[in-house]
Design goal:
Blueprint: E1 4-7, H1 13-25, E2 36-41, E3 47-54, E4 57-63, H2 72-87, E5 93-96, H3 101-106, E6 110-115, E7 119-123, H4 128-137, E8 145-150, H5 157-169, E9 172-177, H6 187-197, E10 204-208, H7 227-249, E11 251-257, H8 263-275, E12 282-286, E13 290-291, E14 294-295, H9 298-306, H10 319-325, H11 331-339
Parallel strand pairs: 4-5, 8-9, 8-11, 9-10, 11-12
Antiparallel strand pairs: 1-2, 2-3, 3-4, 5-7, 6-7, 13-14
Helix pairs in contact: 4-7, 6-10, 7-8
Length: 346
């Protein structure tokens, strides 16, 4: 009897313990975002290899040291790709250590960007990223161009302050809204509120970030040793990708809001201020808009909604955002925010 490759149920505590142990043995922590895990077990039901999915990504891959060189990882990745195909996900992404990039290249994955010594970001479409950049290039305009990247979860007066400043200082502003679903406010709603809130600014072009600009909520942290390393590596990867996107739109500046309250965002901004000039892109850190001596943030808005204080968000958001949340259409989104355990995330 040979090996058995099978899905691992979240309720299968014995198998889940084996997954944790195998990942730990390979210097990997279990990722917080997983929606499918499989294992390849020997005839005694000892775990020899494992891998997982989250959304359209493949992650948390490991093979027991005693079984390496037997092609087990190939079997696991092939299985995960089949699972993704059944879900309708044909465009797949993965993050791997640089030493493993060639292996995944042999399986049909192509490098998008890398952070030397840390990770490589890959996809299974040869022209995926170049086609994305080519589509962006069609929206390129004459004159100076800047960029802002935001989650807009939801779009606040703080976001608007940043956008208006960038739009006033440049001929064009390319505004990227993170299209990953990483919270209770769906992407189509977030993007719609951004477009409505910036409709008075004719030089602003709104873009969906697509799968290439990654939010901190879904950035894989499982093979990085501590939280600060995760933040810095995420920032580094984001900036390497952004550095390849910028020429498509002739972007020479990126604007970001100043951050005093969030360690995550402050570290991110620090990385940005250091790396962007090396890529030939100016970095502008704009002081936060304050209302009643307090910085306006999306976290504050979500906290107020979470606490049933809907009227309290009115001074913090554009009229277009307020109109949405005051309408019956927003009911399910408000309920989703109120069900969240933690609405203060960055």
């Amino acid at each position: 009897m040979g090996d058995t490759l099978t899905a691992i149920s979240p309720r299968d505590t014995r198998a889940q313990r084996q997954v944790d142990a195998l990942l730990e043995q390979e210097g990997i922590r279990r990722d917080g975002n997983l929606d499918y895990t499989c294992g390849l077990f020997d005839q005694d039901w000892n775990l020899a290899a494992t891998g997982s999915c989250f959304g359209n990504t493949i992650r948390c891959l490991a093979v027991s040291g005693s079984r390496q060189g037997e092609g087990l990882l190939n079997q696991v990745v092939t299985h995960l790709m089949e699972v993704q195909a059944e879900r309708g996900n044909t465009h797949l992404f993965l993050y791997t250590k640089p030493k493993s990039a060639k292996f995944f290249g042999d399986l049909g994955f192509y490098e998008i960007a890398r952070v030397e010594g840390s990770l490589v970001f890959m996809e299974n479409r040869r022209r995926g990223f170049s086609d994305y950049c080519a589509a962006l290039e069609k929206t390129r305009r004459e004159g100076t161009s800047a960029a802002v990247v935001m989650n807009a979860n939801p779009f606040t007066l703080g976001h608007l302050h940043l956008v208006e400043r960038a739009a006033a200082e440049n001929d064009n502003l390319h505004l990227f809204v993170l299209s990953e679903e990483a919270g209770p406010i769906p992407f189509p709603v977030r993007k719609r509120l951004v477009e409505a809130g910036t409709a008075h600014l004719p030089n602003v072009v709104c873009h969906s970030s697509g799968p290439y600009i990654i939010s901190s909520a879904t950035f894989p942290s499982y093979f990085l040793k501590d939280e600060d390393t995760v933040i810095r590596t995420h920032a580094a990867l984001d900036l390497e990708v952004f550095g390849k996107i910028a020429p498509s739109l002739n972007i020479t500046r990126r604007y970001v809001g100043e951050e005093k309250a969030s360690h995550v965002t402050a570290l991110y901004n620090e990385s940005m201020a250091a790396r962007l000039p090396e890529l030939g892109i100016g970095c502008r850190i704009v002081p936060r808009l304050e209302v009643n001596s307090r910085p306006v943030s999306a976290s504050t808005v979500r906290q107020l909604i979470h606490g049933g204080q809907l009227e309290g968000i009115r001074p913090l958001v554009p009229e277009t955002t307020w109109s949405y949340f005051a309408s019956p259409e927003a009911g399910p989104v408000i309920e989703a925010i109120q069900r969240e355990n933690n609405v203060i995330h960055y």
